[in-house]
Every structure is written in structure tokens, then in C-alpha cells.
Amino acid sequence: MLYNLLFPLADEYIVFNLFRYLTFRTGGALMTALVVAFLIGPRLIRGLRSRQGAGQPIREDGPEGHLAKRGTPTMGGLMILIGMLSATLLWADLTNEYVWIVMLVTAGFGLVGFFDDYLKLTKRNSKGLPGRLKLLAQVSVSLVAAVWCMSIAGEPLSTGLAVPFVKDLLVQLGWFFVPFAVIVMVGASNAVNLTDGLDGLAIVPVMIAAGCFGFIAYVCGNTIFADYLQIHYVLGAGELAVFCGGLIGAGLGFLWFNAPPAMVFMGDTGSLSIGGALGAVSVVTKHELVLAIVGGLFVLETVSVIVQVASFKLTGRRIFRMAPLHHHYEKKGWAEPTIVIRFWIIAVILALVGLSTLKLR
Known about the structure:
Elements: H1 2-6, H2 22-52, H3 77-91, H4 97-123, H5 131-152, E1 160-162, E2 170-172, H6 177-195, H7 203-220, H8 223-229, H9 240-258, H10 267-284, H11 288-294, H12 296-315, H13 325-331, H14 336-356
Antiparallel strand pairs: 1-2
């Protein structure tokens, strides 16, 4: 909004020329989202605590240490959503359709997560929204976003899949691009949701991935940098750097209250929305496969669940003591801060590997 209102005045007031720079607006979005989260956080937590009473239901079959977290309110993801979306609306170019696509996915998935959390609290169980209904809602939102994205991107990008480490290769998926994009967005959303099981575990890797994709959006939306790095230029994608800045700022603000011992959990309201946001940004920037590397920690957590379920159904035996993977290490006796920090380290390493794909071609 500020860009659309103030940049046209740059000829008269040179200070407004700052709004032409993505780096300036990305920094502004980061700081705005951080301040918003800090300002609304305490009041939001008090409101959630007063309305939720016993807080988020804790699984009885989960790690014993989690029983001490009873009474901690959930739906803290509202703090992330409000900070991130308000910062994006304030600092991004609102004539850019990619910005609206990513905000659609973020808000849509956040709404699905909100209803899921609401049902968990009112029914006092950890199941929430029926799985099929939740998946149907996510697919519907992703389907609209994928078709919308295709209608904006010109040929051959609209249905193309870029392959990391290989320059100029764009695999044409045709209309299969739509279900592929849906899988990326829904998969990323649920992968972050599975990872969100310990205080601070999910939000830091999300911020790391958002930083990577903010940089990717910036370079692939710039003709000079895209040509130098030999990646596909996506007109308008650079504006998503502002959105990613907002996600980082809101994530930092949320982490202030989610640091052990957590004052609030993000819940599905937060995890589904920010995971979907990362998936949507990767689809727009044509770096869907790079997301699997940068967000490799989320992939590992998801695979651990799939392997556990498949093994138990086929053989009656469990591979892990408990899934997702972070619960396995809890059952082995690792302290929660040890698991969280080591998983953060893994996320940093995978992010560096993912960023290397921009140059190693």
C-alpha cells in the first residue's frame, strides 16, 4: 500500500524513491511484522488463555514430558498471520497478482487450521477437523492458486518445472502442473504441521526457509541476477521477497513467546498457513524442487511418519519409537532443547545446500 501511495510522489519528494527498492520494503515488512507481533502478542495470549481454559489438548500416548505443558493456549499462529499479512499489505506492491496468490494460500490454509484448532478445543481431543475435510479444503485453495498462477506466468514458465543444478532445463508438465502445484502447497503445509511438536522447533526452520526463498524470489525476479545465475526469470516474483520478510518478522515475534517454556503454541492455525505460504512461494518462483532441499527437515519429519505407518500396517512393527522423528528422540531420552537446537542446525545446513543450487549449474 505504501508503495502504491508514495512511490508515485518520488518525482516531487525524492525520499519516496526509497520505495522502489525491494530491499528497503523487505526490511520494512520484517520490522513491521515483528513490531505487530510484539504489540498484539501479550494481549492475544491473555485472550486465548481466558477463552481456552485447559489449553491445547495433550496426547495421552505422547512423550511424558508433554503432560507438563497442559494449560498452554494454542492458536498463537494468529499472531504470525496478523503480523505477516498486515506487513505485506503495507509494504508490497498490491498490483502484483503473485502477492495476492500467496496471501490467498496463507489466509485460506490459516482458516482451515483455525477451524481445526477450534474443534480440538471445543471437543477436548487432539483430532480436530476430519482429515478428509481438511485435505479437501487445502486442495481447493491450492487449486485456485495453481490455476491463477498459470494464468499469469507466460509460456514456457506457466506449466514448466525447473530442475536444480541444470541450467536452461524446463520440464513441461502441461496441465499436470496443476496437481503438481497442489501437491507442493498441501505437502509443504502438512509437513510443517507435523514438525510443529516442540517449543520453537518449527518456527525457526520456517524462518530459515523464508529467508532463502526471499532471496530466491529477489534474484529470479531480477533480469540481471537471473541471467547471471542462469535461473529462469519470473516477472514480478521479486515482490514476494517483501512477503518473506514479513514472515521472518512475524516468526521472530512469535518465537519470543514460543521459546521454551512456551507461553503459546502456534497450532494448526499457524503451521498449516506458513507451510502453505512456503509452498506457494516455491511454485511462483519455479523452485519447487529446491523447497524439498531447503525444507528438508520438514521432509524428514513427514517421511518418518509415512515409514512408521507403512511398517506397522505391513509388518506390525514400528521403525521409530514414536513418529514424527522428533518424538523418537524424545523417547530415547534426549532433552527437548537438545532436539530443537540440533534440528535447527540441520535446517541451516539444508538451507545452504538449497541455496547452492542457484550457482552450481
